[in-house]
Write a structure and sequence with these properties.
Layout lengths: L1 E4 L7 H13 L6 E4 L3 H4 L4 E9 L2 E8 L11 H24 L9
Parallel strand pairs: 1-2
Antiparallel strand pairs: 3-4
Length: 109
């Protein structure tokens, strides 16, 4: 695995394209996690994990495939709904685990 954090930030457009080509060359050898704000870098990925604000002031975590991103970069409503369902399921699982944890009783000897 290679984790790259904002390595593309100082690059101009031409060098960002070159960076993307280099990453693609190494995909047979490694998997990449790239943290970026650069749209061109995002385009080389298979899956995008991020945060979106579908409504003002309400942030939501999402995981989308690029075919779920609409024109102008808006994440499709179906992808957001899917992320919300996944978050509710994860929260329910966390609550079930908390409820199943044994409670220790302290008995004075």
């Amino acid at each position: 695995f290679c984790i790259l954090d904002e390595v593309d930030a100082p690059l101009d457009e031409a060098n960002n394209v070159r960076f993307g080509l280099i990453v693609q060359e190494f995909l047979d050898l490694s998997q990449f996690i790239i943290i970026t704000h650069h749209k061109r870098t995002m385009q080389i990925g298979n899956v995008l994990y991020g945060v979106t604000q579908q409504e003002q002031g309400v942030s939501k975590r999402v995981s989308v495939k690029f075919d779920q991103v609409q024109q102008g970069g808006r994440i499709s409503d179906a992808a957001v709904a899917q992320a919300e369902r996944a978050e509710r399921l994860a929260e329910a699982e966390r609550e079930a685990v908390r409820d199943a944890e044994p409670v220790e009783e302290h008995v004075a000897a």
